[in-house]
Write a structure and sequence with these properties.
The complex is a heterodimer. By secondary structure, chain A is mainly alpha-helical. Chain A has one domain. Chain A is built from 20 helices and no strands. Chain B is built from 19 helices and four strands. The longest helix of chain B has about 30 residues. Classes of the chains: A mainly alpha, B mainly alpha.
Chain lengths: ~500, ~500
């Protein structure tokens, strides 16, 4: 048991985010409607940019705060892995705030709280990546989830939003109960909630698998499965995606999945790795079910949010391969694909958000003729969709290839085969959207000015998609070095096993 | 010299970006940029072909390497690198690609609907094709393969044409989707093959020369070769996975049909040779009878189907299936004459079928129908066009002095030498059927008394004539003086493992 010293400065980026969230609420609440004399009115759009600046500051601070330290009563690790994800989640927060600015101003109430919740979601996700103890992980997970529940139901007068939020919250609460019960079981059998202690206990346990341990593992997998939307625990996803305000959908698709996988990877690599033979086929089964169902059901969707919801379920199936093939190689491949997926998906969502801000439409057939009305948008959305389908020049091809090869390297060639097949299926429904954009005829010519911030954010994301697709070496090197931290114990366990 | 190969993939990509930046109110500028770029690519491909030194035994020429990922994760030294090089098989195919894209730009000159988008996608396609022929890295070979697939849906669906057969309609969207899904389905199998090969080789690299030195387990070779054979075979129009080819080629606009049938189908046969047979010679030997059978069926089936068509473009489409059947037969012989013949046939068929599609397109632009039964005697109105058709057709049926003869002759000699007498006989029968449908088409549509309905037809545009003449020049070159081709090809083929002399 590590000594109970608390090195409070380790959480500086999180303090900044929390303080910023409070600041945003206060600004929104106390800034007089008429402004103070020469300090004019506080534009709601401006709040979004202030929130984005806060997230960006936390990113920069977490970069200078690289401090390999676990001196927080062993509850969290601050190492390269944490830094990687702090940067990543912070940037997701930045783009979510930028993409929200106009949408929130025009369509939602209570802008201050809205942005505060986005920042709190980032805090939760950071905690999930940093946690090295089950209860800390659980609390961080709940912080992320609660922020997202509220955000999903944020369009107060929209029934779909309320329905989506309620469904998300009820199923989420249920899954949290499963997770907690699983944590209890694990604590009962191994005597600790610290990842490293669990790992030690399991690696010295050479007998057959204990029923309570197995039940605990299954419950944890189910609970985390809910959070990352793995089949058969995915039911909330389409409704929450469809009901939530569009920028929130983008945020859920990005941060709840990547936060979930940051936790998933670290927990399984540090704690459950010694029992890999007992759980890997369970995860592989989840992975197959997830990618098959997600991609097949996506084919028949007519609403672009639902389509992206099912396509993201399919992507979760690919990501689970990285857990099933648990090894340092597959871990870095998993994180790389997750980053590629998140950047691509955010690009797709920003396109949809911009279009929705113009027209208020979100059916696939509404995108007809986008090539003529908004060429840049059509180009960006096509790039994003091709990348999701795993076509080259774009992020999807390189990251999927590396992930699938990493799985094949761990005797999971059959799983890689299923994944490639499903990736082929996915090309069909992405092509359907592309067909609408390039072949359809627009009902009426549109010409609405788009703020440069939105196009700028989109251009950055598209540049990211191209960069990861054409030259992933710097990112993969960074990811590989960082995930090595969570696999540091694996080597030791293997040596101890010999 | 490695820079030449790198330039061949970067020039089309940069052209695509450059054209994207040209404001769409200058369509003429777009055309000139495309023309200059295609001219550069043609010139570079000529350099690659003629500067290739075939003497000195095996080996790759113009090597070029750009590290992409190495020493990270499961990748070791040179894990994935943009390793470009050509051997005697790739050099003629690079030349073919340069030739066909140059011709295709002339043929596509008059496209006015979103011509900017058209050329962007066309050059993306060409970059992919050059990349596949030049890649010496399994990852990048596949990367470029998918780059070539990427723009196809839009190229066909936006600029293509639907075919109405009275009782049913084959829409361009149908043709486009079918083509893309077939090709990507084929690539699923190739993907699995690549994963398996990488794991089995266990060298931590996708570099083809390194993977080629590995002695793979015989059972593994037999198990994995079909993945490559069928996966690449889909693209090569292998029966029974050929059905995308006539539908897709007919739906595509002329310039794209030229590239698809002329170059893209060759990627498939090239892949079987470069990846399947080179890495897994024992697997290839084991499956050769199957490949031979499918090739023969394709050759006969394509020829008979072409005989049944009244639509000119469908006839050309099925003739491609038939000729690609010859290529697969050549590969399946596993001896140097047959395999050299297969590569020769790839070049000959590429130039010839590009010429045929250019001709069909030129006629369709004026007549707005491709039904050969409605024409008659139009040679009087379009003498040069008819001459082009005749030359392409005669090359197709294997007239000595034209490229098709050299290629088919090698293939049939190789087939007999490998002991497949029945296959050789069936192949010659297919060539005879080819003569039937080509001559029948010429007689029906081009010669005989002029049908008055077509009084208004005029000779094809100068650009089209130039493109046609260029393709014919190469058909004659290979037909009359095949030595430069045979030298380059047979020198390399003889060094492929598992190929008997």
């Amino acid at each position: 048991m590590p000594d109970a010293n608390f090195d409070w400065k380790l959480l500086t980026p999180e303090y900044i985010l929390v303080a910023w969230a409070g600041l945003l609420i206060m600004l929104d609440l106390f800034w007089p409607a008429g402004g103070f004399g020469r300090w004019g009115r506080l534009d709601k759009e401006l709040l979004g940019y202030i929130a984005a600046a806060g997230a960006l500051i936390s990113v920069l601070v977490s970069l200078i705060w690289v401090d390999n330290d676990t001196n927080f009563a062993g509850l969290i690790d601050i190492n390269d892995y944490t830094t990687l994800f702090r940067v990543f989640f912070g940037l997701i927060g930045v783009f979510a705030c930028l993409a929200s600015a106009r949408y929130v101003k025009e369509r939602l109430l209570h802008a201050g709280e809205y942005y505060a919740f986005i920042l709190l979601a980032v805090v939760g996700a950071n905690g999930m990546a940093a946690a090295s103890e089950l209860l800390t992980a659980y609390i961080s997970l709940e912080l992320l989830s609660f922020s997202l529940y509220v955000l999903t139901a944020y369009a107060k007068f929209d029934l779909r939003s309320n329905e989506g939020g309620l469904k998300y919250m009820l199923l989420g609460a249920f899954s949290s109960a499963l997770l907690l019960y699983g944590i209890g079981m694990i604590y009962g059998t191994t005597g600790s909630t610290h990842y490293s202690e669990i790992g030690k206990a399991l690696s010295t346990d050479t007998g057959g698998i204990d029923e309570a341990l197995f039940l605990g593992l299954a419950l944890i997998m189910a609970g985390l499965g809910f959070k990352v939307a793995a089949v058969p625990f995915h039911m909330w996803t389409p409704d929450a995606y469809e009901g939530a305000p569009l920028p929130v959908t983008a945020l859920i698709s990005a941060i709840s999945k990547s936060g979930g996988f940051a936790l998933f990877l670290k927990l399984f690599a540090e704690a459950f790795e010694p029992k890999i033979d007992d759980w890997r086929y369970f995860i592989a089964g989840l992975s197959v079910a997830t990618m098959v169902l997600g991609n097949l059901v996506a084919i028949q969707q007519s609403n672009i949010k639902r389509l992206l919801a099912y396509s993201s379920i399919g992507q979760v199936g690919y990501l689970l391969m990285g857990i099933a093939a648990l090894s340092p190689e597959s871990g870095s491949a998993l994180v790389l694909h997750m980053m590629g997926y998140v950047v691509t998906n955010l690009a797709a969502f920003v396109c949809v958000i911009i279009y929705y801000n113009w027209t208020g439409k979100e059916e696939i057939k509404d995108f007809a003729g986008l090539r003529d009305t908004a060429p840049f948008l059509a180009l960006s959305l096509s790039i994003a969709l091709f990348s999701l389908a795993g076509m080259p020049l774009f992020a999807g091809f390189a990251t999927k290839f590396i992930l699938f090869q990493a799985a094949a390297d761990q005797d999971l060639l059959w799983l890689a085969g299923v994944a490639v097949t499903m990736s082929f299926v996915s090309l069909y429904y992405y092509l359907v959207i592309i067909k609408e954009m390039f072949l359809g005829k627009a009902e009426a010519p549109l010409s609405v000015r788009v703020p440069w911030v939105e196009y700028g954010a989109l251009a950055l994301l598209v540049a990211g998609v191209l960069f990861i697709g054409l030259y992933p070496a710097p990112l993969l090197d960074w990811v590989d070095g960082s995930t090595a931290d969570v696999f540091a114990g694996v080597g030791r366990a293997a040596v101890a096993g010999q | 010299m490695g820079g030449v190969l790198f330039a061949l993939v970067t020039v089309p990509l940069c052209t695509a970006v450059l054209i994207m930046l040209v404001p769409s109110r200058y369509p003429q500028l777009v055309r000139y940029v495309a023309l200059v770029s295609a001219g550069i690519q043609f010139a570079l491909s000529l350099i690659v072909f003629f500067a290739y030194e075939f003497q000195g035994g095996r080996g790759l020429r113009f090597g070029f390497r750009l590290d992409w990922l190495e020493n990270v994760g499961f990748l070791g030294k040179n894990g994935i690198s943009l390793h470009l090089a050509v051997d005697g098989i790739a050099a003629p195919l690079v030349l073919l690609t340069g030739l066909v894209i140059f011709a295709a730009v002339f043929v596509s000159w008059n496209i006015s609907y979103r011509n900017k988008d058209f050329f962007v996608l066309l050059f993306l396609l060409v970059a992919g094709v050059f990349g596949v022929f030049e890649s010496q890295d399994l990852f990048f070979l596949f990367f470029w393969y998918e780059v070539a697939v990427l723009p196809m849906y839009l190229l066909i669906a936006v600029w293509g044409a639907s075919s109405n057969f009275g009782t049913f309609v084959r829409t361009k969207e149908y043709g486009a989707m079918k083509l893309v899904l077939y090709l990507v389905a084929g690539s699923v199998l190739i993907f699995i093959g690549i994963f398996a090969t990488f794991v089995e080789a266990d060298r931590g690299t996708f570099d083809l020369p390194v993977l080629g030195q590995v002695q793979y387990d015989s059972g593994f070779q037999k198990a994995v070769f079909p993945f490559y054979m069928i996966g690449f075979g889909v693209l090569a129009g292998m029966w029974p996975f050929h059905t995308w080819s006539p539908d897709g080629h007919v739906a595509a606009p002329t310039g794209v049909s030229m590239l698809h049938a002329g170059v893209l189908m060759k990627l498939g046969a090239f892949g079987i040779l470069r990846v399947g047979m080179t890495l897994l010679p024992e697997g290839a030997e084991f499956w050769a009878p199957v490949l031979m059978t499918l090739g023969v069926i394709g050759a006969l089936y394509g020829a008979i189907s072409a005989l049944a068509q009244t639509d000119l473009k469908y006839m050309v489409g099925y003739s491609s299936v038939s000729h690609m059947g010859f290529v697969l037969m050549g590969l399946a012989t596993m001896n140097d004459i047959g395999v050299s013949g297969a590569v020769l046939q790839m070049f000959a068929h590429g130039a010839m079928t590009a010429l045929m599609f250019a001709n069909v397109g030129a006629l369709y632009d004026q007549a707005h129908t491709r039904d050969m039964t409605t024409f008659g005697g139009i040679a009087k109105k379009m003498p040069r066009h008819s001459a082009f058709w005749a030359i392409a057709g005669l090359s197709s049926l294997g007239l000595p002095g034209l490229a098709g003869f050299i290629a088919e002759f090698h293939i049939f000699v190789g087939t007999f030498r490998a002991g497949y007498y029945w296959a050789g006989a069936a192949g010659i029968l297919a060539a005879a059927i080819t003569a039937t449908y080509i001559l029948r088409m010429l007689a029906r549509a081009y010669f005989g008394p002029l049908n008055e309905k077509w009084e208004s037809l005029r000779e094809m545009r100068l650009g089209e004539q130039f493109a046609g003449a260029l393709l014919i020049a190469f058909l004659l070159f290979m037909g009359l003086w095949p030595t430069p081709f045979i030298d380059r090809i047979s020198d390399t083929v003889a060094n492929i493992p598992g190929i008997t002399s």
